[in-house]
Amino acid sequence: MIGQDRPLIYLLGRFAEKGGYQIIHLPAAPASETIRALHPFAIVFAALEDLEKAQAQVADLSSGEIPILVCSSGTDLPEARDLGADHCLLHPLSYEAFQAALAPNPERNPSRPDAPAQPPRAA
What we know:
This protein is α/β, with parallel strands linked by helices. It has helices at 6-19, 32-37, 48-53, 55-60, 77-82, 95-102; strands at 22-23, 43-45, 68-72, 87-90, 121-122. The strands form 2 sheets. A 3-stranded parallel beta sheet has the order 2-3-4. A two-stranded parallel sheet has the order 1-5. β3 (68-72), α5 and β4 (87-90) form a beta-alpha-beta unit. The termini are close together.
């Protein structure tokens, strides 16, 4: 997870734990190679501003292998998509929406495994 919103980080950490995911929190987006080396199941940006700041990394990671999620409001959907988000977690956040965003989607990424061998990580 990338961002600095502590309450949101806590909430998504709880959602991740409940769903069997491991969260790795980074205050800012590192280089694309660093992100790939973590083998994340998804990249979650805490806010649209965090996604905007990481455009170089997002452009490099936009192959679809790693889904890019952003927490935003419904009014930000078009901009989030333009910035490379594959999915938006809309406020107010719910566990069900979080799980749905992380669910494998063969249409979006046919090479993504349905059941990872290790606990999946969200950066």
